[in-house]
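Let's practice the habit of predicting before peeking. Look at the sequence and jot down your guess about where helices and strands might fall. Then scroll down.
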Amino acid sequence: MADKVILAGDVGGTKTHLALWRTARGGLERLTDRVYRTAEFPSLEALGAEFIAGSPRPDAVCFGVPGPVIDGYSHATNLTWTIAQAKLAASFGGAPVRLMNDLEATAYGVLHLGDDEAVVLQPGARSGGANMAVAAAGTGLGEAALIADRGGRYLAVATEGGHCDFAPRGAEQIELMKFIAAQFGHASYERVLSGPGLVNIYRFMKENSPAPEPGWLKSEFESAADPAAVISNAALADRDPRCVRALEMFVAIYGAEAANLALKMLAMGGVWLGGGIAPKIVPMLQRGGFIRAFNDKGRLGEILRRIEVRVVMNEAAALLGAAWCALELLDQRN
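Done guessing? Here is the structure:
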C-alpha cells in the first residue's frame, strides 16, 4: 500500500492539538502538528481546514473529544461546537472519520508509549494480555478501560466514571463530601479530582482552618490564570502547609479512585495515570500517599499490590492514540 496521510486531533475546551502523520513501514511518522486555541474557531471543520491548507488531503481522520460520543455525535459539556462525524467526513472530501472520547484516545495511546515516557509508582507484576485502566485528572476527571481479547489486542472503552459519587475515606473526607454537596448539589469524583477539584479541596481546608492565608499566596491567586497550579506549586515547594495538606488529600483520593477503577476492570495489566495534573505532581505522587490509598482495599489489597501503576509523561498520548485509530480506519478500507 502506498503511503497515506492521516489527520489526528486531541480536541479540548481550551486548546486543540492537530497533527498530520504519514504511514511508513507499517507504522506512523509525524509530519507536522500545531496547537490552536479552540475558542478562536467557529467549528472543528473550520479549524481542520486551516490546519491542512497547503497539505495533502488526509486519507483517514480521527479526533479525540471531551465527553461521550453517541451515534456519531460529540456530547461535550465544555465545547460550543456541534461535532458530527458525518459532517466532518464531508468536509474532508469523504475520508473516513472517527470521533472518540478523549480518554478512549489516551487509552489507545498508552499502548504505544516507550518506557521512557512513563514514571512507575508501583512496579507490580504486569500481566500480559490482561485488562488495563486509565484515570486522568485534568480540567475534569476522565476514566477508560482497555479490555484485552484472546488475540492479544485491546479495545478501549470510554466511561463517564468521573461523574460517579465521591466515596470519602475517613472523617475529614466525609466533611469534604458534605462541603462539595452543599456547593454543587452532587459530590462527584470530578469535583475533587481535577484542577477545579484541587481548588475545591483547598477552599474546604481554608474554611475549616483558622490560619490566615499568607500575603504572597493571596497575591499569586489574584494574578494566576490557574489557581490549581498555584496550590500544587506551593505544596511541592513546601511553602504553605495548607497547600501541602490539600495536595496530599488530592493524591490520596486519586489513589483510592484509581484502585476502584482497577477493581472494576480487574486491571491486572496495569493502571495508567493520564491527564495534565499527574505529570506535574510526580514528586508528591512518589511520597507514598497515592500507593497507600491505592492498596488500602481490605481483603483485595494483596491483588492491588500486584498491579503496576504508571504516570503518563507524554502529553500527546491522546493525539498518538487518535492517530493509530485513524490507521485502523485505513486498514478496514483495504
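How did you do? The first helix runs from residue 44 to 52.
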